[in-house]
Amino acid sequence: MDADVDLRKALKAFINSNPALRMDASQDTHAERSEIFRTLHNLHSLIQSIKNPLGSKDNPARICRDLLDCEDKLIDGIYWIDPNLGCMSDALKVTCKFSKGGRTCLQPAAPAKLEFDLSRVQLTFIHLLSSEARQVVKVHCLNTPIWGGRAKPPGSLHLPSPSTPLMDNPPLRFLSWNGREIWGQGSSHPAVLDDCQIQDGRWRQTRFVFFTRNTASLPITIILGLPNPEEGALYRLEVGPVCFL
After folding, report:
1. Domain 109-244: top CATH class
2. What is the mean predicted confidence (pLDDT) over 75-102?
3. Which of 4, 22, 102, 237 has the most other CB atoms within 10 Å of its CB?
4. Would the pLDDT of 233 be above 80?
5. Whole-prediction pTM value?
6. Would you state the CATH architecture of domain 53-106?
7. Distance in angstroms (rounded) separating the CA atoms of residues 4 and 10
8. How confident is the model at residue 36 (pLDDT cuts 50, 70, 90)?
9. Domain spans in the chain, listed from the N-terminal domain onward
């Protein structure tokens, strides 16, 4: 009711401030005034939905952190976002991790594919609205070295270095979203948890953890240098979500 009163006051003030409208006000039909009132009401509703998003398909937020700013008691789960605040037909269904500060997590199109179902425009807005990004990519392997051939303790955590060659196999190279190759050095290089060097007849995995403040680097789009399956290499890819904060 208060909103209706405010809108009527706004309409009256708008007409009184405009001489042309004031002269013709007595000639306005009831239908015309109703149409103006509906337009103002819709504008008011739009402004309120932007100020107080619900994370629903009809009232999406820009990113998950906006929902956290509006409401403290939210649980992790599936929500809708519209980073460019354009037409709601391109709103995205994402996983919001409020327990991690309001991370916006995009799931890959398939677990073994480095593909994400969203437009480049929407992802660009997510990059601009975020200050950091994280993604984990795993390679499950059977008697197939993935990262390097030198024997290391199982589960050893290391960062690649140009001064320490990666032994029998060439290092993997990762193509970032912004077209750069990632390996070895730089703010976007992955931490590596490598068990695939252990060849004992059991399935193991090499885990690549990407964390960067250059948000346009993620998601990873291509992995170069994986072993050749035609030469007997046995492995499968598991692509994790890319999460922005």
Report:
1. mainly beta
2. 90
3. 102
4. yes
5. 0.71
6. 2-Layer Sandwich (3.30)
7. 10
8. low
9. 2-51, 53-106, 109-244
